[in-house]
């Protein structure tokens, strides 16, 4: 088991996936909260059954999968519904994240979570690594990537910690405002450092 955990986070469009993919190419195990969040609501899962019972069949598509858009539309306008959903999903996601962290056997393990700090997941981490980009670039990249409206992206950004709050709580910061090579150079240096820290932990 890797007993040294690096929490990787950053705002939407900051380049978390590019960063974690590169660390994975260096032989580091990645535990991704977004992937786990999808796994806990797969067809046949207790969470999906509970969601269908609570919100009705309109949140299940023809293939028996969760209709994310329908569910998002419901909880976006209803705080009680959102609270119910969070109380169901957060413990299930957390349990699976912790199990995957324990199974990791690379020199250290990276926990990738967009809401790492908002959901207090940093308590399971030895260090917090923030991928940082200026907000204007965040907006531009996300709109291009997801083909989203500016208003929609701004609403997501507003629901996350501000850039300043995130940077204040970071142990390490990688600046992703240039090309991929620049990002990878910074991560290569951090990878060496994390391997050393993990040996001493």
TrEMBL record:
ATP binds at residues 13-18. It catalyses: 3'-dephospho-CoA + ATP = ADP + CoA + H(+). InterPro entries: Depp_CoAkinase, P-loop_NTPase. Its main location: cytoplasm. Its EC number is 2.7.1.24. One of its GO terms (cellular component) is cytoplasm. Keywords: ATP-binding, Coenzyme A biosynthesis, Cytoplasm, Kinase, Nucleotide-binding, Transferase. GO terms for molecular function: ATP binding; dephospho-CoA kinase activity. Pfam families: CoaE. The keyword Disulfide bond does not apply. PANTHER family: BIFUNCTIONAL COENZYME A SYNTHASE-RELATED, DEPHOSPHO-COA KINASE-RELATED. Belongs to the CoaE family. This is Dephospho-CoA kinase. It comes from Idiomarina aquatica.
């Amino acid at each position: 088991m890797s007993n040294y955990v690096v929490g990787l986070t950053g705002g939407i469009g900051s380049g978390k996936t590019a960063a974690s993919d590169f660390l994975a190419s260096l032989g580091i195990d990645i535990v991704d909260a977004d992937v786990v969040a999808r796994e806990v609501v797969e067809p046949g899962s207790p969470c999906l059954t509970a969601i269908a019972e609570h919100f009705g069949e309109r949140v299940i598509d023809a293939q028996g999968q969760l209709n994310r858009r329908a569910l998002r539309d419901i909880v976006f306008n209803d705080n009680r519904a959102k609270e119910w959903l969070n109380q169901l999903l957060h413990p299930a996601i957390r349990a699976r994240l912790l199990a995957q962290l324990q199974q990791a056997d690379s020199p250290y393990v990276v926990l990738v979570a967009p809401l790492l700090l908002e959901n207090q997941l940093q308590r399971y981490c030895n260090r917090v690594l923030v991928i940082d980009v200026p907000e204007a670039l965040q907006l531009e990249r996300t709109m291009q990537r997801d083909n989203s409206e500016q208003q929609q992206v701004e609403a997501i950004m507003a629901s996350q910690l501000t850039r300043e709050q995130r940077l204040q709580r970071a142990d390490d910061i990688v600046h992703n405002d240039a090309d991929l090579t620049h990002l990878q150079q910074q991560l290569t240096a951090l990878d060496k450092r994390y391997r050393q820290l993990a040996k001493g932990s």
